[in-house]
Amino acid sequence: MKLRALLKRIVPLTIAVTLTTLSCGKEEPLPATSSATEKAVAKPQVAVGSTAWQVPVDVNPTPPPNPPQANYLDLGWQTFIALNWPSLSPTSGGVNGQPDTNATIGATAANGAFVPAVWSTYRDVATIMLNNGADPGASYTQAVTIPSGCTPIGSNPVAPGFQPMFIDGSSFPNATIVRDYINQATDNPLVDQKGWYTLTDMKIDQSEYNYIHQNAYYLGATQAAAYASAGQLQPFPRTGQETTLPPNPPYAQYGALEVKAAWRVLDPTSDKAVIPRYYTQWGYFMQPDGKTCQGPALFGLIGLHILRLTPSTGGTWFWASFEQVDNTTPPAGIPATLEAPNTPNGNCTSAYNAGPAAVTGNIPWNNTNKPDNLCQVTPIPSDVQQANTTWQGKLAGTVWQYYQMVNTLNPCPNGASGCATFPPINDPTNQVNTPIFANTAIESYFQDHTCMDCHGGADGDGAPTPITGTNQIFTFVLLNAYYPTTSAAATTAHASFKNLFKNPPHSKLVGAPAAKK
C-alpha cells in the first residue's frame, strides 16, 4: 500500500515520439495502463496568459534595431513555456508537437502523471537520421511504439492517451557525427552524484523536419550534391510559413527549432523528497547495442537546451538554455545533482571538470558508477537571475518554478558593450551577446566557452572549406545523416569535427559591433 501511495504522488512525464526500427525484436504498441480519463487533468493557476502555448516567432520588437538583452531573455522564457505546454494526446486527436490549448502548463493527469510537454512529442533525431538512409516518412507524426523486449510499464503512472518515454541510444557508424545520447559533444559521459549515468536525447520541430525530409537531407550524399551544384544548402525555415515546404498547422508556424534534453535516473524511494522538484517521466532507455532495453525507470529532467532560427537571427540563430535548479547550487537541505558538497562554484580549480573517458558500448545500468567532479565555472549573470525570478514567479505552483535559465545567446543588442565575435569567421559585424555561457548538465566539460565556439563551425556533409557565412548553418543535426563514404575529404571532415569538440576555439570579447558594410 505504501508503494502504491508513493506512485500516486510521483508526477512522471510521458512522451510521444517515433522510434526507429530496432533489432531487439518486433515492435508493438504498449497500451496505457491507467484507468484515469484524459479529461481528469489538474490545471495549476499560473500567470503566463491563456495564449502562452504559442511559440513566439521572433523577439519583440522585431529587429532592426536589435532590442535590449532583456527582450531576448523574455524570448527565451516565452519559448520555454510554450514548449513545455501540455500536448494534446493522440487519443484526443493530437499529433506530434500539438499543444492542448485548453490545458495549463504543469498540468497533471488524475493518476499524478504529467501531461507530456509539446517538445517531448517532437520527432527524435533517432527517428529521422536512419541507417542506410531510409526515408523517415512524409508525415511528421508517427505512432509511438515500445520494443516488445522492454519490460511492461506496469503500475507506473503514464498520462492516459500517451506512451511511456523511450530514449533510443542505439545508432549507426556511417555518419560524419555519430548520434550519441550517452557521451556529451566533448566525447565524455556525465555521472551524477548518485552514481547514475545521465542521458540526453534530441528532437526537432515540424518546420525543421519538413525541411530535412523535402530536401532529402537525411542522406549525406544529397547534402553533398547540393553543395556541389549550388555551393550551399537550401535555406532553413525561419517562420514555419515557407511556401517552398509543406504547410504547417497554425500552432507550428515558427522556424526550425531543436531541443536537447538531459535526464537523471530517480529512485522512487531514496529520492522521494526531491521528486516533486523534477519534471519526470516513466520510460525506457535502449542501450547502444540496440537490443538491451533498460527500465521501466523514472527519469527526471535536469537540462533543456533550445536552439532555434527566427526571422531576425539568421546570422547567429537563437539559443536559450535551462537547468533544474538543484544541479549545482540547491537550497539548504537539498543535495546537488551534479556536484559534491562544498564545491567552489565560480572559483573552480583544475581538480574539477576533467572529463572521464568516452563510453563505448553499453553503460552499466546501476548507481555504482563513480560520480564526476563538476564545478560551475560561471555563475548565472545578474540580469538573467532577475529574469528567472520574474518568470519563476509566474510559474509558481508548477514544477517549472524549479527550472532556471542559464542564459541566452543572440545577436548583440543595439548599443551594447561586452559582445563577442565567434569562430571560425570572427566577423566584427556579426556579434553575439556573450563570449561565455554553458549548461552544466549538457556542456559539463567546456564551461569556459559558448555554443558558438563549436556551432559556428557547423555545416552539412560535403560542405566546401573554409566555412563562410553562406554555408554556416549552426546545427550539427545534418551531420547525423547516413553518409557511407570513405573519401579523403569525408575522413578529414570527421576528424575535424572530433577535434573541434575536443579543442574548440574561443569567442572574442569586443566592444560595440562594427558597422556593416
Shape: globular
Secondary-structure element pattern, one letter each:
HEEHEEEEEHHEEEEHEEHHE
Radius of gyration: 22 Å
Question: Can you give the mean pLDDT?
Answer: 90
Number of helices: 7
What proportion of the residues is helical, as a percent range?
A: 10-25%
The biggest sheet, with number of strands, parallel, antiparallel or mixed sense and barrel status, is:
8 strands, mixed
Can you count the beta strands? 14
Structural class: alpha+beta
Kindly estimate the percentage of residues that lie in beta strands according to DSSP.
5-15%
Number of domain modules: 1
Low confidence ranges: 1-37
What is the CA-CA span between the terminal residues?
Answer: 72 Å
Tell me about this structure.
The protein has seven helices and 14 strands. It has one domain (1-339, 362-410). With 517 residues, the chain is an alpha+beta fold. The strands form four sheets. Strands 4, 6, 7, 8, 9, 10, 11 and 12 form an eight-stranded mixed sheet that branches.
Write the layout of secondary structure elements.
Elements: H1 2-9, E1 27-28, E2 41-42, H2 69-83, E3 108-109, E4 123-124, E5 146-147, E6 165-168, E7 199-204, H3 206-214, H4 220-230, E8 257-266, E9 280-286, E10 293-308, E11 318-324, H5 382-394, E12 403-409, E13 420-421, H6 452-455, H7 488-502, E14 508-509
Parallel strand pairs: 6-9
Antiparallel strand pairs: 1-5, 2-3, 4-7, 7-8, 8-10, 9-10, 10-11, 11-12, 13-14
Helix pairs in contact: 2-5
Summarize the structure.
The chain is α+β, with helices and mostly antiparallel strands and 517 residues long. The protein has 7 helices and 14 strands.
